[in-house]
Design a protein that fits this description.
single chain, Rossmann fold, four-stranded parallel β-sheet, two-stranded antiparallel ribbon, 15% strand, globular, binds zinc ion
Length: 226
């Protein structure tokens, strides 16, 4: 135990029991996604690869998603977003790590976080997708690159209906790098990182930007399927 644990003792994000951010009893209640699913129709798909009939040229090629956005995982994600306890992100990274073997994604992928608008990032102090991406990059020795920018302020997707979500994020992202800070996307495999995958509208929009700039594949990775 370190000093910080004494001053701010860890409590379970779900049942408030002291000791850890997610106690064993709540961890056992996490609902895992047994079989990988397609990013478009969310039906079972081998290794998480998009069905050939669903896939779009400038869209997502696959989906890595580990559990359902319910119970303890939902509580943990909400706590990260709104309560600034970003240590919980380590639990989420662990949950992803333990389940990565189920997915058949390109092993040379570059991890790219879904960006927040600077206004929201400043207010929150951090971007949870960045924390997750950096942690996973260290664990798996995958390169990490903060390539995207949310150039337009958008309403939170959770407030919107399914058909409104696409419209809300359309044209909201652009590439961060400039001529002085080049990064060639040509032929690169990208793994987009976010906390929750709901309709895929945000990740699809990001994939579109990355693929038009030359990326050969874009997979989405999220802790939970909303
Ligand atoms: Zn608990
Ligand atoms: Zn499909």
């Amino acid at each position: 135990m370190n000093l910080l644990d004494l001053i701010f003792p860890k409590r379970c994000v779900s049942c408030r029991k002291f000791g850890s951010y997610l106690c064993d009893s709540c961890f056992s209640k996490v609902e895992f996604v047994d079989k990988p699913v397609c990013p478009y129709c969310e039906r079972q798909a081998v290794g998480g690869k998009a069905h050939p009939g669903c896939a779009k040229r400038f869209g997502l090629d696959g989906l890595i998603v580990v559990c359902r956005y319910r119970g303890p995982v939902r509580n943990a994600i909400i706590k990260i977003k709104y309560k600034w306890i970003y240590d919980i992100e380590k639990i989420l990274a662990t949950i992803i790590s333990q389940n990565l073997w189920k997915f058949d994604f390109p092993t040379d992928s570059v991890l790219v976080p879904v960006p927040l608008h600077t206004k929201r990032k400043r207010w929150r102090g951090f971007n949870q997708a960045e924390l997750l991406g950096k942690d996973l990059s260290k664990r798996f020795k995958h390169p990490y690159a903060d390539l995207l920018l949310r150039s337009r302020y958008t309403r939170p997707q959770v407030e919107l209906k399914k058909d409104e979500r696409k419209k809300n994020v359309r044209g909201a992202f652009s590439l961060r790098f400039t001529q002085s800070k080049p990064f060639s996307l040509q032929g690169k495999n990208i793994l987009l990182v976010d906390d929750v995958y709901t309709t895929g509208a945000t990740m699809s929009e990001c994939a579109n930007v990355l693929k038009r700039a030359g990326a050969s594949s874009v997979w989405a990775m999220a802790v939970a399927l909303g």
